[in-house]
Amino acid sequence: MKQLVRTFALVFVAAFALMILASYLNKSQGYSGGNTLTIYNWGDYIDPELLKEFEAESGMKVIYQTFDSNEAMLTKIEQGGTTFDVAIPSEYAISKMKEENLLVPIDHSKLPNLKNIDARFLNLSYDPNNQFSIPYFWGTVGIVYNPELVGDLTFDSWNDLWDPRLKNQILLLDGAREVIGMGLNSLGYSLNDTNEDHLQAALKKLSTLTPNVRAIVGDEIKMLLANEEAAVGLVWSGDASEIMDQNDKLDYKVPEEGSNLWFDSMVIPKTAKNVEGAHQFINFMLDPDHAARNAEYVGYSTPNAEALKLLPADISQDERFYPDETLTSKLEVYNNLGKKMLSHYNDLFLEFKMHSK
């Protein structure tokens, strides 16, 4: 027993010494909390030149890490093993982070460039008054299609998907909110609807779409559509832009009944060590010139009204990715439906998928 205790003590002392050494080395290399900013973002989701400019302007060292899903990001922040000063989750993840007390309130007085954000994209349901989040990029859910393969269909309406000429020609995202939401929107209902009669009506209508559904897929939807393996796909606008870059025959449409308006936003996690630096970085990214350059590099839609004025006309005037207010007024952010209702949506989607096989 004494030998075991002695061994444990030696291990503890060694671990403590390594921790002190790591801290010393980090500080000696400029990596202490006050002059280091750790950013957690999606892959290839920022112009790297902007990070260099921020370092030069602020005197801080930027440590940049990436994630590939909101769930992975949430898990890492919940575990608290790694400290992040700025993270860029989607709106539904922000709702969850608020519920779990994982976010620091944002001090708007430290963000003079916040005035540049389009008022349409502020004070939304997932974060009233933007207490915890600042919009970074936004987009929609809509339809990518190949005009050469769909005849005279224009997809001004979701109901065009039910056209019998599209038999075995549609790819759907493997997402309950997207597919059930599409069914609800096609009937004129909100994609956040919790009325059971409306949900059952949407499921019934979706079941009649199955002859046209080729497959329900994940990320491979981009490759399949670009390679013309199907004529039509239900996709996020960011993916649509990437698909169309690979195949310029394709087009993108958000149906007139309405759809999802999604946001990725900048937040400050509760465990941040450099809250002041986080505010500096957020304000830096809200600068019109920086936001415009970032939008050109990434290819997603900027919520920054002043940045939009600086973008080339072929980007800023492309209503597929910057729809006018007539359409955006019909778009909805996904509400946090709660665990019980979200589980019900998933069950309805599973029933639809089983019916589609």
Automatic annotation (TrEMBL):
CDD domains: PBP2_PotD_PotF_like_2. Keywords: Periplasm, Signal, Transport. Its main location: periplasm. The keyword Transport applies. GO terms for molecular function: polyamine binding. It holds the Pfam family SBP_bac_8. This is ABC transporter substrate-binding protein. It comes from Paenibacillus barcinonensis. The lineage of its organism: Bacteria, Bacillati, Bacillota, Bacilli, Bacillales.
